[in-house]
Amino acid sequence: MRKDGYYTKIAPKAISQARNDIATWKAAIKQASAVDNPRRIKLQNLYKDIALDALLTSQMENRRMKALASKFVLKDQGDKVNEEATAILRGSRWFYDILLNALNAHYYGPTLIELVNDLSGIRVVTIPRNNIEPVSGTLLYDENDSKGLSYREAKEFGTWLYEFGHPSEFGLLNKAIPHVLFKRFAQSCWSELCEIYGIPPRVMKTNTQDPAMLTRAEQMMRDMGAAAWFIIDETEQFDFAKGADTNGEVYDNLIRLCNNELSMLVSGAVIGQDTKNGNESKETVSVNILADLIDSDKEMVTSYMNQAVIKGLFQIGLIPDGLRFAYEPQENISQLWKRATEAMPYMEVDPAWVAEKFGIKVTGVKAAQPTGLSFFD
After folding, report:
1. Predicted TM-score of the model (pTM)
2. 138 to each of 116, 148, 164, 221, 263, how far by Cα in Å?
3. C-alpha to C-alpha distance for 269 and 293, rounded to whole angstroms
4. Are 284 and 54 within 8 A, CB to CB?
5. Distances, alpha carbon 140 to alpha carbons 56, 107, 114, 146, 180, in Å
């Protein structure tokens, strides 16, 4: 039982809530790319900030969840599925946490996780990315330290500690940062436009040197929200100021551009968002592009599992030796049904196979219609 891991030695840090801009991003890249003492603290803080964007979150979740929902198996050297070991991992929340961290390495960059086995069972702890320096393979107990643990040389590496992602990569979210920041800027400006010009400003001219008239004018302006009319002196003048000439098209266009760029970055296409120019053939192509990206994600996860994780799980006694991780092949049900129906007039089709593949319970073979009779005879 391994209750205490390296993660317990990490000093927690508060995240700055200062407004981020392109200058912040440039400074973060400079810090992460430094030859001497590189740090990814600012970059990872930016990742956490932009991950709050609704569209970016939905695109990432859509791609990740499809990969996580794909069924996997553990096979032995003879390519036979080990049902018992497969059932153990499929029924374990902690193993799906490992898969999720492997997928997240594509977005956040190098990811270090630690397995802990306590009274509640096995847990997966994601080491804060602010505290790892992947190029040198250093775990910093305080993110501002200059020295730390060389985790790749630790005895637990490969059994209780696992690393995903290439050390020199920054992750896909690095390319999403400018689009989220520009989008946030456009939303802020559009919101300010609505606040100022949504209702035309009211203008009232009065004698500001007369305290009584000034107080009366202020009271009338405050009551305008509840009172639809009021009476003014003949020497006073009331009017609505001219509103803005734009309704925010420039902001709308910038937000739309940023959303499209984020969709292209994560999903490879704009899927289901462009209702004006969208059509069925375009959506079909876009969905196929996303499917190809998901397949690549699964290939990446498979390599991580077979190169390190599966071997490590054997060494700590969770699964038998000699197994390898694999995803079950995805079948095109529509194409399979078409082939099956085309083959039925010429050969016998196994009813049990039809029930398993298509969920159609076959009770028997239907009697052929007499030749020359129509359906309604």
Report:
1. 0.78
2. 20, 6, 14, 64, 34
3. 11
4. no
5. 30, 22, 14, 8, 29
Contacts of 192 (CB under 8 A, 6+ apart): none
Partner residues linked to 81 by β-bridges: 75
Contacts of 253 (CB under 8 A, 6+ apart): none
Question: Which residues face 149 on adjacent strands?
Answer: 139
How far apart are the C-alpha atoms of 12 and 47, rounded to whole Å? 18
d(CA 359, CA 374): 29
What HEC string does 160-193 produce?
A: CEEEECCCCCCCCHHHHHHHHHHHHHHHHHHHHH
| pLDDT per position as a tens digit, 153-173 | 999 999 999 999 999 999 999
Whether the CB-CB separation of 310 and 324 falls below 8 Å is answered with yes
Burial code (b: 16+ CB inside 10 Å, e: under 16) for 191-209 equals eebeeebeeeeeeeebeee
pLDDT in tens, 29-87: 999 998 888 999 999 999 999 999 999 999 999 999 999 999 999 999 988 999 999 99
